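Sequence in, structure out. Go.
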Amino acid sequence: MSPTPDEIRIREALERIQTPAYDIAGAVREQRARRGRRMPLRSPRRLVSAVLAAALLTVTAAAVFQVSVGWKTIFGQDVVIPDELAIPLQKGATMNGCTLTVEDAIVTRTGVALIYSFRYADGSPLSNPIHFETVSLLTDGTDTAYSSRGQSIFTDSRDAVQYFYQEFSLAEDPGDRDLTLTIGPASSMETSEVLTASLDLAAVYQAHPIAFPTDQQDAYRTSAYLEQDTSSVPLPQAWESSEVQFAGVGFMGDELCLALITPPYDLYQGVSCDIVSLLDTRTGKIIDNTGSGTYPLEGEDSEIREARFQGLTVDDLPYLQPQIIYTRSVPLTQKPWEVSFRAKSAQTYSRALSLDLSDGSHIDHLFLSPLGIRIEGTRPASLDEDGGLDRAPHIAVILQDNSIIGASVSECGLSMEESSARETFEVTYVYQAGTDSRRFLSVSDVTGIRIGDTTISIAE
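Output:
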């Protein structure tokens, strides 16, 4: 079913909110479900009263097994993964009515990638996205690694399973060693309906006008909001959310700024709130926010959450009503799951280089694994706000059959000594399948890497 225009608006508004990301599709699908009926909470059971020991599973990789459907769920139907790379684990355990299954693993000499899934033991639909407080990997019972990259897809509140992908970077080869994955506790992220607040924004602003300079510090912004008297300004409530308050109204150039005082966004506890749009009562149209900001309140367990709307003026204030969405976390388990396994590690490739590029970059190291490519080097220093992603060298991968596939930048790390004219960079790429999906590769399938205009031969 295609999303409605209203669902698209909700999705885009939430994506503009600068908070730790959870799958926006969950919020959108929740709105669809609520239009027909109100989703009951899995409370009052709350699923947290029972105290269970973590379930410890020891599994051995099977020789042949079809790869998990989770790969296609997360990366799309075009994902490419060789059968010999994905090690089938397919082992699960249930606690508090929740079943976690570690489905597949890719083990390399420098990292581990995993597909795992969550479902309710009774097969009931997942009304909301699921999150885990901790995901870590223990090697030989001592060295703990935390996930360096992960993602999940919550597609529909009628689905009975949610899949997750996680990567771990390791300092030593994990092959044929005892690996223990720890996941949890689990919680469900719920979102309220979009609530419209009938506020007199003009009265709040006229009582104490605020004009933010574009280069002000965060402390100035928070103190300015706190000077506005908003203690008696009511907000529509969802659940037990009395700690959420309206913070104020201001302008920064041609942007209208509206703010809430709310507990920090937390995937695992408490209630939080965001302004996602405005209702223009003159036209009935919805105005989506064009930006956002979060500003901690010193000494308090709360923060100012701001939404910005471009192109509005003081004259518009009497006709605007903020629209807000509450989020909260409902604990599902008190203890984490633990899954142990062993597997041989797949081949990787590492090579020292001395390659100069036309933009002044110098690449001194190339690393390949089934999960992607990493290059390291130096380049002229820059003050790029995007972390240097737009300056990452273009890379293509040449395969044994002479076909060429792309590689897209996933991470870019920068460091620079004070007063230095050059910065050190480390760029990580993932292999592409088509334009929108991901590929995983056996290193033996690669014959060359093209960096800019130079092709590096990959020797056996």
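Check: Residues 13-65 have pLDDT under 50 and may be disordered. The longest helix spans residues 24-36.
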